[in-house]
Amino acid sequence: MQRIELFSIANFDYGDVRLPLYSSSVSAGIPAPVSEDIEEEVDLNTLLITHPNSTFFARVVGDAKNFEGIKDGDMLIIDTYNQPQDGKLILVQLNKTLAIRRYRIFDGAEYMETPMGQFIPINNDFFDSLDFVGVITHLIHSY
Q1: Where are the domains of the chain?
Q2: Helix, strand, coil percent values for the chain (each to nearest 5)
Q3: What is the pLDDT of residues 94-132, one digit of tens each?
């Protein structure tokens, strides 16, 4: 069984955190970058988060068949401001349970694709409740 734990964006301090981006290549050995190799500094907040006021994190807990190799411990970045686009992963609440689905459009009709390849019309009476939560903008795999 798989579940999704939510983290509010308010729990994170978005101070000026910049990490070095080295221009040297990465080999199989132990890298020894020097300060001359720093190409620029990267702020992961600006790189990964477009709408800070409408973005939150979620951690995937448990293993289940899922999209894009999403597995236990992976972190999702979800933007509630973005509108879904065909083929993008979304987070939905189905009957009080969070689930990852792929948003699809065929002949102007909206569908959710399940990990098993089933296409469920979004506008149907099958679910007691179905709420769009947000678009999954980034996936951070845990290894």
Answers
A1: 3-8+51-140, 12-47
A2: 10, 45, 45
A3: 878 888 999 999 988 889 898 888 888 887 666 667 788
Which amino acid is present at 132? F
CATH number of 3-8+51-140: 2.10.109.10
DSSP 101-135: EEEEEETTEEEEE-TTS-EEESSSSSSS-EEEEEE
Question: Residue 56 is encoded by which pair of tokens?
Answer: 């939150």
Is the Cβ–Cβ distance between 24 and 37 less than 8 Å? yes
Phi-psi region of 58 (alpha: psi -120 to 50; beta: other; left: phi over 0): beta
| Structural tokens at position 133 | 């939560």
Token pair 């401001």 is at which residue? 81
Report yes or no on whether pTM surpasses 0.85. no
* CA dist list (Å): 57 to 1, 3, 18, 94: 20, 14, 20, 19
Phi and psi at residue 80, in whole multiples of 5°? -85, -10
Strand (E) or helix (H) holding 44: helix 44-48
Cα distance between residue 84 and residue 92, in whole Å: 11
Which DSSP letter does residue 15 get? -
